[in-house]
Amino acid sequence: xxxxxxxxxxxxxxxxxxxxxxxxxxxxxxxxxxxxxxxxxxxxxxxxxxxxxxxxxxxxxxxxxxxxxxxxxxxxxxxxxxxxx
Amino acid sequence: xxxxxxxxxxxxxxxxxxxxxxxxxxxxxxxxxxxxxxxxxxxxxxxxxxxxxxxxxxxxxxxxxxxxxxxxxxxxxxxxxxxxxxxxxxxxxxxxxxxxxxxxxxxxxxxxxxxxxxxxxxxxxxxxxxxxxxxxxxxxxxxxxxxxxxxxxxxxxxxxxxxxxxxxxxxxxxxxxxxxxxxxxxxxxxxxxxxxxxxxxxxxxxxxxxxxxxxxxxxxxxxxxxxxxxxxxxxxxxxxxxxxxxxxxxxxxxxxxxxxxxxxxxxxxxxxxxxxxxxxxxxxxxxxxxxxxxxxxxxxxxxxxxxxxxxxxxxxxxxxxxxxxxxxxxxxxxxxxxxxxxxxxxxxxxxxxxxxxxxxxxxxxxxxxxxxxxxxxxxxxxxxxxxxxxxxxxxxxxxxxxxxxxxxxxxxxxxxxxxxxxxxxxxxxxxxxxxxxxxxxxxxxxxxxxxxxxxxxxxxxxxxxxxxxxxxxxxxxxxxxxxxxxxxxxxxxxxxxxxxxxxxxxxxxxxxxxxxxxxxxxxxxxxxxxxxxxxxxxxxxxxxxxxxxxxxxxxxxxxxxxxxxxxxxxxxxxxxxxxxxxxxxxxxxxxxxxxxxxxxxxxxxxxxxxxxxxxxxxxxxxxxxxxxxxxxxxxxxxxxxxxxxxxxxxxxxxxxxxxxxxxxxxxxxxxxxxxxxxxxxxxxxxxxxxxxxxxxxxxxxxxxxxxxxxxxxxxxxxxxxxxxxxxxxxxxxxxxxxxxxxxxxxxxxxxxxxxxxxxxxxxxxxxxxxxxxxxxxxxxxxxxxxxxxxxxxxxxxxxxxxxxxxxxxxxxxxxxxxxxxxxxxxxxxxxxxxxxxxxxxxxxxxxxxxxxxxxxxxxxxxxxxxxxxxxxxxxxxxxxxx
Lengths: 85, 882
Fold this sequence. Notes:
The structure holds two protein chains of two kinds. Chain A is mostly helical. Helices cover 55% and strands 0% of the residues of chain A. Chain A has four helices and no strands. Chain A has helices at 4-19, 42-56, 67-70, 73-84. In chain A, α1 (4-19) runs antiparallel to α2. The longest helix of chain A has 16 residues, at 4-19. Chain A starts with a helix and ends with a helix. By secondary structure, chain B is mostly helical. Among the domains of chain B are: 1-34; 598-713 and 765-856, Rossmann fold (3-Layer(aba) Sandwich). Helix content of chain B is 59%, strand content 5%. Chain B has a five-stranded parallel beta sheet with strand order 6-5-7-8-9, sandwiched between helices. The radius of gyration of chain B is 33 Å and the shape is globular. The A-B interface holds A 18-20, 22-24, 27-33, 36-39, 41-44, 46-47, 50, 60-63, 65-66, 68 and B 186, 190, 221, 225, 319, 323, 334-335, 338-340, 342-343, 346, 350, 354, 401, 404-405, 408-409, 411-414, 417, 492-494, 497-500.
């Protein structure tokens, strides 16, 4: 079962392993800007969406790929929680 | 809890809430006024921007005035309580719209008779579109209704339905709604709550969109969410910085375009080629400049919008280029087209979905560019270079995307790990991307594929050498701007708290921008007041407004954005609305034969800065009956703009002076008429067409062709024009020359010109023969007066000899007036216009000399018995004239 803290940690692990393999994980916090800082571009966003749908068994909509929903780990986790109810 | 306690508790909560609101308002008010000194400093910068815009005549006069008004509006907006600012901005934008659309040449402020109906039409149409987007019905039903309204507007735009005084507003309406309505509909459909009316009207009627038709495609959600989302002074100062950057880009554009840039027509060798390719890639500075300027202006009102493009010429891959070159366009395409397509297709697999969605986006981008062109200019045409450009770019971006999908790309949380190896790789990739993108831009700017391929075939060692220099500059710029950690102290891109690192100090930002603005002001002042000749070309390049009509020969090879960022001078109302000056009086229209233009009949206006009138036959002359009166001798005068009398009053032209003198001094010898058939820009081949279409009907006794040394190069120009424009029923002789020299529409103009040069004399003689033969056919005496233009002095002797010889060989009676201006300096003989046309003094000198020659030449025998037309020579075979 996914606990509230696990979502953030899962996301952090995914982002580090997929996009920032050589970076210090402690630098990636829950409020680090992802889209606005260029870490998440369109290709990365699609990979992230695939990860979220598979890992958390949710369905994402096209309009949920913007900074309002995916710019930080905190926002992404909030989106996931809202979909899981 | 008892009811009383509940009430007391509620009351306390209300009191606490009210108290909190008051405290918040007081805090906000304190912030507004405590930052006042810095606001004043920002205002000073805005005032300097206004001065620069005015002194360099940047963009249209309506935009310049919007900047002045926006300076005041900025202060009022800041001093207003926060909750009223958005409504103020919406009303301010609508007021400016009202003021701009009422623009005309005859009203200093605004013409109410224009402003009211036009503003009402914009509000009605715009309000309808906004309302349709907000209807609580299905998404596709709303799309259908919007398409209906858009189609009705398109019928007006196309002129199928007349719109009277509203004709000028359609491009303005398009600039506001053609794309933003798509984003607005999408965002309204995917948001839980509808936006406010202030947000909606602010978004569509944004200043200065009413004056800048090619406007950045601002995202609605970003527009709303970024409103005062940071400290106000930080936002304002960033706005000023971007406006300053925009000014610098616009001035750089002017320098590159006017001093250094080449169109493909001018490419004749490897050095020209590299110059064309590199200069074209920097013409996007025009768009970048306008976009930075407009977005910066919006930041002054609290809309903390992102940058429109970011050093696109330093992109390190095609996907990077796509991300940087127009951020707003990319965000629009991704949001409205790419992600929805990808999500629908992802069941096919990630890779197939990515491929199809990417190709779909570029197809949409190409189509929407055509759509934009049509709305803003009224015309749009498919072109092979355009289709090829988008197709090639699509596949390059796709290939890059697939690579990034499989291999990933370098991302960093800090800059501390940027090594020399990373920097080297970045430099190499950036140089490669720059080279390919520049090549693609050169294709996009070419009028046809054949010319582009031909231009590329001219590449030589010079192309390689200068290209290497350009790439070296790109390499240095990459190291300085994109790989900073090699030279700076290692620092985090994001702070330890995970937020983006702190903004530069206000004073550092302010002083840098202020210094730039002071330098620009100083430059403007210097260029306006200097009288030193060595700065003349520099002054012309930087100080002249872009908004000048271009003749058909200069139009070739202008890029996509040049056509959109200049006010389409085919739309008279739009011209007068945005420029607030009379539409240039154009007494002629284009024709598809060697005349290139013909004068329109019964017109009167200011042309060449003097009163210009045409008679019912389309001549710049007084009226004449078609039928020659009994006892009258008629002389049909042929020539180009100098003979037409450009820039002088009709009665000051030599043709009129001679006619008057003949009537006064020689009344006993009968009556004399000189009919002026001259047309500006018309060379000898065109004058033969004038003979055929106009002169023959008037039964002249004498055909007087006035020719100059320039007619040699004009034969070259006309032969090239005939090939390019595919003039119908082209002369066989000219066709033979084109065939022999292998000149067609796929050659660059400069190369074609070089190939035709040896045949100029022969083509001139051929054109002269056509006029002679047509004169004989109507029993008129062919006379040729060789008169130099003021700009041809001192005369090139070889050309003088050639023109005289060709005219004589063709069968003309030749009047040699090449010495008519002897002893006079060119400055005394020409008007100050760019063509250096004859002034009234030059016309007087010509009239006196020509009168003498016409009346004393025994072959012409103008005052004696009727002259007879002798037989002329036959057409020679094509061969080099040297």
